[in-house]
Amino acid sequence: MLALLTQMGVRAEVSGQAMTLDGSCVDQPVAPYELVKTMRASILVLGPLVARLGEARVSLPGGCTIGARPVEQHIKGLQLMGAQVELEHGYINARIKQGTRLKGSRIIFDMITVTGTENLLMAATLAEGETVLENAAREPEVADLAHLLVAMGAKIDGIGTDQLTIQGVDRLHGARHQVIPDRIEAGTFLCAVAAAGGDIMLRNIEPMLLDVVLNKLCEAGVRIESGSNWIRATMNQRPSAVSFRTSEYPAFPTDMQAQFMALNCIAVGAAQIIETIFENRFMHVQELNRLGANIMADGNTAFVTGVEHLSGARVMATDLRASASLAIAGLVAEGETLIERIYHLDRGYDQMEQKLSALGAREETYDL
Fold this sequence. Notes:
It comes from Linnemannia gamsii. The chain is α+β, with helices and mostly antiparallel strands.
């Protein structure tokens, strides 16, 4: 992300866990294929560039191959706001007439989209007049972005709901903001202790971001204690199988599906998992089965029958959350598990191997 922003003209300084960004000199409204192909979030520069500079050339996104994630909602919204958008040679080319601004509009999303909501939310802050986003995503990350924009001078009502109303302003200014904790990283570590057993304390996490996940962990037999910014999880038994259906926030997150599947692999009983967000997000099934799991997938439904033991093997990470599920399965498998293509894991987790090792796991990283 820093490479993408700096090549556009953003000045960035990183100091420990803090980052200072200066966007006053942005003059290159291009997101090239070489950068975008590795990170789908690159699409998020589209709306801000059009709103700020009047044009953008952004490569169609890449990222994890977990299913079709079309950008039609992004494009439709910008067109309703007055932008001319063309798809040409693998790029999205968007522009508005020189000397004009995007126009506020009423935009109804055909489907709930997190990045679509974020893209048009950012574009609307600098549009002329009022923009209403209906059927907007309600994920905590969307609300966090909205709070940052408000701190920068944006006028946004309905934060945290499925209808956002934005009054455009002439410009935004600098602000200081603390990003919310990563609820999916936290949920992954909770699934790890649920599967492997133990007693862990997560700090700097907001339990309310994980209500559904915590309920399912309790159903699996994990003892959960929590405070305003911490969660303690204790597990001293074989977990019970838990069934669930993924859906948009505040329902069960699709980004926790693979980790809970790993947990179910060694649970007592059987569980049914229904994936409703991405049609190709069961690629970890065959890899978990290589470790001795008993999983049958049929369309968007997976049936998991728990087994007493998994057996270490060589497996391949196919996407970000699949790699996390294999790490969890490797923790409980007998013998050594070698996970290949962990670059997926590194895109979504900060030094996971060090954190797991600090909790007692025996992990090593190799260059193959």
